[in-house]
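Field log, afternoon session.

UNIT: design team B
ACTIVITY: writing a sequence onto a fixed backbone
BACKBONE:
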C-alpha cells in the first residue's frame, strides 16, 4: 500500500511477532499533553471484521492469546492503552488518573475511525472490568455508530465491591468530594493477591510489566471514585444497549487475606452478584453468562477455563452472525 501523509504510521510494538502500535495525540487536559496507544494484530487473511479491546483499571494490553484467538476466528485485533495507562503514560502524568469516564471517548472514537479506514465494516467492542463499564457507556451514548455491531464485556465494573453502608453513604460522599478534590487519595481496598495470582514470578503463568500492572496499589484518587460512581449511576437508572451484548463473569468472588489456590478460581476484585444484578438491568439483547472457576480477567483464567470462555464467546458471536 502506498503511504500518504494521512496514513497512520505504526511501529513495532513491545509484544513483537506481528504486533504494531500507533500513538494517538489529543488536546492537553488538566495534567498537560495527552496520548493514547492503539495496538493491532492483523490476521493472516484479509478481513472486514475487527475487535477493539479496552483494558481495566491498573492494567494495559498484554493478553496476546486473546488477540491470536480472535485472529484465528477471522477478526483483526485492536486494543487501546488508554491515556495515562501502560504504553500511553507520560512522565508528567500520574498513572490511571481520570475525572470523568467520558475523557476516554476521543481515543475510542479515533480508534474506531482508524479501524474503519483500514477496511473494516463491523467491530466487536470488548472491555474488561473498568473497560467493560467504559464500553457499556460508549455504546449506549453512540447508539447509531456504524461500526459497532456487538459488545463483549468481561467482568465489567458495574458496582464497587463494598458493604451496603459504604455503597449508600460512603461512596456518594467520596464521589461528591472527588468532583472538587480529584487528586486527594484514599485507600484502594484492592486485594493484594490479585496480581500475584496472575504473574509468573509469583503464582501465575503470565508475564507482564509490573510497573504498568503493579503488584500492589494502595491508594486511589477521589477523581477516579467520582468518575466510576457517576458512570454506575447511569447504569442504575437504566441503559439501552443498541447491539447484542454478552456479559461474562466468574461464578464466585473471593477476598482472601492469605494465599490459597482458590484465588485462581474466583474473582478477587468484584462481587459477581453485583455484576449479574446490574447486567440484568440493561435493556436490549443482553446475554449474561457465568464462567465456572473463572478469574476476574476471564481470559487469564486456567487453560481449561479460558478455553471454555473462548468457545462460548465465539459460539455466541456465530449465533449473532458476527
Amino acid at each position: 500500500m502506498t503511504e500518504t501523509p494521512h496514513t497512520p504510521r505504526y511501529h513495532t510494538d513491545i509484544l513483537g511477532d506481528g504486533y504494531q502500535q500507533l500513538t494517538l495525540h489529543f488536546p492537553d487536559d488538566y495534567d498537560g499533553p495527552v496520548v493514547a496507544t492503539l495496538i493491532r494484530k492483523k490476521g493472516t487473511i484479509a478481513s472486514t471484521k475487527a475487535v477493539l479491546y479496552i483494558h481495566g483499571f491498573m492494567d494495559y494490553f498484554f493478553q496476546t492469546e486473546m488477540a491470536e484467538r480472535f485472529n484465528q476466528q477471522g477478526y483483526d485485533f485492536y486494543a487501546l492503552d488508554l491515556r495515562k495507562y501502560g504504553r500511553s503514560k507520560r512522565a508528567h502524568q500520574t498513572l490511571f488518573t481520570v475525572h470523568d469516564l467520558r475523557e476516554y471517548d476521543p481515543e475510542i472514537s479515533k480508534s474506531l475511525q482508524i479501524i474503519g479506514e483500514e477496511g473494516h465494516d463491523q467491530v466487536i467492542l470488548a472491555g474488561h472490568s473498568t473497560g467493560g463499564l467504559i464500553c457499556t457507556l460508549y455504546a449506549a451514548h453512540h447508539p447509531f455508530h456504524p461500526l459497532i455491531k456487538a459488545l463483549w464485556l468481561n467482568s465489567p465494573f458495574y458496582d464497587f465491591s463494598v458493604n451496603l453502608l459504604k455503597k449508600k453513604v460512603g461512596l456518594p460522599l467520596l464521589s461528591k468530594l472527588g468532583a472538587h478534590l480529584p487528586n486527594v487519595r484514599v485507600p484502594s481496598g484492592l486485594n493484594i493477591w490479585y496480581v500475584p495470582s496472575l504473574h509468573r514470578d509469583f503464582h501465575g503463568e503470565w508475564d507482564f510489566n509490573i510497573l504498568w500492572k503493579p503488584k500492589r496499589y494502595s491508594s486511589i484518587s477521589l477523581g477516579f471514585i467520582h468518575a466510576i460512581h457517576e458512570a454506575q449511576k447511569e447504569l442504575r437508572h437504566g441503559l439501552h444497549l443498541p447491539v447484542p451484548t454478552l456479559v461474562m463473569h466468574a461464578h464466585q468472588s473471593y477476598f482472601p487475606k492469605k494465599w490459597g489456590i482458590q484465588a485462581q478460581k474466583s474473582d478477587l476484585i468484584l462481587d459477581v452478584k453485583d455484576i449479574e444484578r446490574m447486567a440484568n438491568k440493561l435493556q436490549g439483547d443482553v446475554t449474561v453468562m457465568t464462567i465456572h472457576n473463572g478469574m476476574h480477567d476471564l481470559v487469564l483464567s486456567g487453560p481449561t477455563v479460558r478455553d471454555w470462555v473462548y468457545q462460548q464467546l465465539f459460539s455466541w458471536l456465530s449465533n449473532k452472525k458476527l
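LOG NOTE: The mean pLDDT is 95.
NEXT ACTIVITY: expression trials, pending approval
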